[in-house]
Amino acid sequence: MDAVEQTEISQLDNIGEKAEQIFEGALQEFLVHGYAGTSMDRVAASAGVSKATVYNHFGDKEGLFIALVKRLAQKKYQIMVESHKAELMETEPAVVVRQIANTILDNSLDDQEHLAFVRLVIGESGRFPELAKTFVHHLGKPGIEVLTEYLTTQCYITILDPEAMARVIIGTLAHYVLMQEILQGKEIIPMERDRIINTLVDLVDHHPKPEI
Amino acid sequence: MDAVEQTEISQLDNIGEKAEQIFEGALQEFLVHGYAGTSMDRVAASAGVSKATVYNHFGDKEGLFIALVKRLAQKKYQIMVESHKAELMETEPAVVVRQIANTILDNSLDDQEHLAFVRLVIGESGRFPELAKTFVHHLGKPGIEVLTEYLTTQCYITILDPEAMARVIIGTLAHYVLMQEILQGKEIIPMERDRIINTLVDLVDHHPKPEI
DNA sequence: GTCTATAAGGAGATAGAC
DNA sequence: GTCTATCTCCTTATAGAC
Predict the structure, then answer these.
(1) Is the confidence at residue B44, as pLDDT, over 50?
(2) B163 touches chain A (CB under 8 A)
(3) Signal peptide location in the record (chains A, B) (predicted)?
């Protein structure tokens, strides 16, 4: 396999060894200190390369930041959506909703990198609107769409507005992660994850039949 | 009324005219540029005072930032929770949920200051955990508690876990604001607010009676 | 309390050798 | 392509006059 073919296999790999190092260093710094709080000196040091090399690869600080966030969004997409699509073919709504909820929470609640990434994208969404949109496109939209598709085909009798219901489910889970972990509220307003999941499962399991 | 009594009436007013100016300048700068992206020079200029005056009042940049965010959290609390508590005494669940949803969305979706404030608190929640907790304590917790109290007393027959259901309702609305406005996703995944509200109203209106 | 002026250090970005 | 050394500007914070 030659170099040209390799670049078509994945947009994440084979970008050069130095570039990989720079991404790794930039990841550490931007996730911890934010965009304005990160210096290119520390990125270079953390990556183990000189500052000039960083500029040679990514042009300027903004270019590096944008490339990093887009790369991370793609990576998260593969983890959260692609690798779990197969599981969605179960027919029992209760089982499917429980599985989706567990997938989202398992990949969020204890993953400090993910929590820092969400903080970063939301925090910079006013100054980098395109990055916020990339995040929505790669992580918010697919989750809602996949669940909507499922609810539409499997629960069309009981759920009047599947897309709105998908947003209820995803929104509840996202807000739970935001409140408990990202905003560090788990000691202030504790809530067991299973109570959230059970309540969501109930919503689709015995939902109101339209009155007959 | 003398000065001592005045300070007990509200923690928001009567902190000195210069301090008020500084808060106003700091508000503009921090909400737009974030913590690290804001310079004390621009805060002073925006406030119309000298930089030394800012330092005399608030010690350092961090002190000013913390004071500003705490002040804003209190202000938002009064707008979002206190001023709407009376409306909660309606007995119809459908009416109450619709009212809460409209209160939250009316005070969020079009309020650029509020959206920027949420961006700021989430974005800085890793570096200023106490501020994140203040936000949860003043804005997240009261909303959930008030709604939980209502659902517990008024819907105890149909809702098995009122606190979890309160989080479903609040979480759905918060996530809607986050996706559509804060992360600027309204063109990417459009959704009418009334579809969200109607779906939430249905949840409490004809919720599953436990099987008899 | 408030101002002007300044200290001391860090920031983004580049020139030029290799 | 990568490095070292450097340029220039901006940052937080304070000293000292009033």
Answers:
(1) yes
(2) yes
(3) none
